[in-house]
Each structure stands twice: as C-alpha cells, then as structure tokens.
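Journal club side-thread
Mid-discussion, someone asked how the predicted structure for our own chain would compare to the paper's figures. Pasting it here so we can look after the session.
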Amino acid sequence: MPCPSATLVVWSSAWLHGAAASDDVLDALQTWGEVQEFRAADDELAARLDLPGPHETPAGPALLLAALRKAGASTGELALPVPGDARGLGGATPFSKLAMRIGEATVLPEAGLGLVPERIAEGILRWTVFETGELPPAEHLPIGEAEHGMASAMREAATALIELGVAKQRPGVREEIAQTIAAKPTPDWPETIPQRTLRILQRATEVEAILWVATDDAPGGALSASAMRSRTDALRPLFDAVRAARRASVAEMVRVLADQAARS
C-alpha cells in the first residue's frame, strides 16, 4: 500500500517545485492521521532548522515545510528498508535504525535530511527529522522494468505455491483481499501525475494485499514449519518486487513534477 513517507515524498517535492500549495501537502498528510507532528532528532539540528528538539513540543507540517526550504531541499526519495536491504539509508545511524524498525522513510538528499514517521496514538503521526549526511545515490529503476518485475514475480510465486501445495482452496479469499485493500488509506496525488504511475502503485497495493492473505495461517494456509519456510522463500521475491514497484512509482511521480516545474 502507499505509506505516509510516499505521501510526504511526492507532496513535499511538488510544493518545493512550486507545483502544489502548502495546504495541499497538509491535506494529503492528514490521510494518515488528523494530527501530524514534527521534531528534530537532536538539539543541534533543531536549532539549524528552527524545529522543536527531541524534548520539546512537536510542530505542525507548516513549520516542517519552511525547514525543508531553509535546508535547501528540492526533491524527495522513498526508502522502504527491510532486514537485509537497507538501500537508501547509509550506515548504522539512529536514522537508519529507526527507519529499518518502521519500514519506511523520506529522504531529502540535497538537504541531507531523513524523516521517519511513528504512530504514537490513534490519529497521531509523529515524524522525527534526522541529519543523514551524504547518502549513496538512489538506485534508478525504470517504472516499466519495475512493473514487469512485479508481474513476473507474481507468476513465479503462484507457480511455486501451487507446486508446494501451499496454495489451497480457501473460502472467502477474494473478500479477504478486498477488505484488506479497503482498510488502507487512499491518499490523493497531484493531478498532473501520469495515470500509468498511479495504476502501477495501485497494482502494488493489490498484490501486497494478496501477499498478506497468502501469509496468514488461517484454515487452508501453510501450517507445518517446512511448508511455512517454503512459502516464505516462494513469496520473498514478490515482496521485494512490490517494494521496488512502489519506490519506482514514487520516483517517477517526483521526476514528472520536477520536469513540469522546469518547463513552466
């Protein structure tokens, strides 16, 4: 599914390029929580960005946008780390450790900043802003290649599960998948985003819902330890492909917004 960091990457990039109003950014973020809080990870960074420090009352999104502008940010990148894949995070830092634990982050390479969201209560999302220093360049994956990779991984996973006897008849599975998708927030995106990009992002959401249902050990699922290991091995490439498709879709959104701003 889309995540808070993807929303922040796209809408903050749109705002920084003059393609969105600040209210658009605030409205989009509220999809993930009525209250959005921001604070710096340490007092030195707080002073540099004019943001609250770690022991102060957090600020709202408007103050964050001013801080991003002040820091020289221009475009954002989405990081979706999992154990064994810390791309986009750099070394073992407080930023990378928190991002790995949460499973997502917004990276602003020009400004040397990274933001990680944490849900601290119902309807409240708190973002911590870190100084990242220079990070390795983000890996570029063409969106068409990402789409093809996700489709191929899905075919291979389906074949493997059938061969393993893991994919068994499961009454109501379509309803489970539909309910999983319906339960996820659906953020708005800038109107000028290409429809193909949105379709791929939506497809990633659908495939992820299928994956979560497939890994649920309800009746009809894989119950033995060996079957669970086989299922995990079969599905891991598809989980990776979904993450790659989501990162590529967000990167393409940001690229389009930057190109549009350059032409205007």
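Post-session note: Residues 197 and 233 are 29 Å apart (CA to CA).
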